[in-house]
Amino acid sequence: MSYLALAILTTSGVTYLLRAIPLVAMRKQIDSRWIRSFLYYVPWAVLTAMTIPAVFFATKSYVSATVGLIVAVGLAFMNRSLFTVVLGAATLVWLVEFAMT
Fold first, then answer.
1. What is the pLDDT of residue 21?
2. For residue 36, is it left (φ>0), alpha (ψ between -120 and 50) or beta?
3. Is the distance from CB of 85 to CB of 72 less than 8 angstroms?
4. Could you tell me which residues come within 8 angstroms of residue 55 by beta carbon, excluding any fewer than 6 positions away?
5. Tell me: the pLDDT tens digits for 69-96?
6. How many helices (H) and strands (E) does the chain have?
7. What pLDDT was estimated at residue 29?
8. Does residue 62 have a pLDDT over 90?
9. Are 64 and 93 in contact (CB under 8 A)?
10. CA-to-CA distance for 80 and 85, rounded, in angstroms?
11. Model confidence at 101, in pLDDT bands (50, 70, 90)?
12. CA-to-CA separations, 58 to 26, 27, 55, 94, in angstroms, rounded
């Protein structure tokens, strides 16, 4: 068996187990308020942990990335649409990159 096939099988097996074990092990409702509140925020924390590094490594400079992130967060807090947030942040990043060259 090749290394690639073994890597694919191992990855798919681990992914399946991580999704199947909670379904099999947790048959009743979780009663603990602390655990329920913790699990509520896990998707947000994972999304943030994956997105923030990508923001800073997508541009040539940390300055333009920081400006874009601040604009995106500001527009999102003002309840703008996703298209407006992305367009505003990308435009400002482009302008800052252009001004810095």
1. 87
2. alpha
3. yes
4. 65, 68, 69
5. 999 999 999 999 999 999 999 999 999 9
6. 4, 0
7. 83
8. yes
9. yes
10. 6
11. confident
12. 40, 43, 5, 12
Tokens of 13: 């097996």
Q: Give the number of other CB atoms < 10 A from CB of residue 22.
A: 8
Domain-by-domain residue ranges, the chain? 3-100
Instruction: Give the residue among 44, 92, 54, 53 at the shortest CA–CA distance from 71.
Output: 92
Please report how many Cα atoms fall inside a 13 Å half-sphere around the Cα of residue 8, on the Cβ side: 5
Residue in the block written with tokens 């302008």: 95
Phi, psi of 71 (to 5 degrees): -65, -45
- What is d(CA 58, CA 72) in angstroms, rounded to the nearest whole number? 15
The residue count of the chain comes to: 101
C-beta atoms surrounding 72 within 10 Å: 20
Query: How far is residue 21's CA from residue 24's CA, in Å, rounded to a whole number?
Result: 5
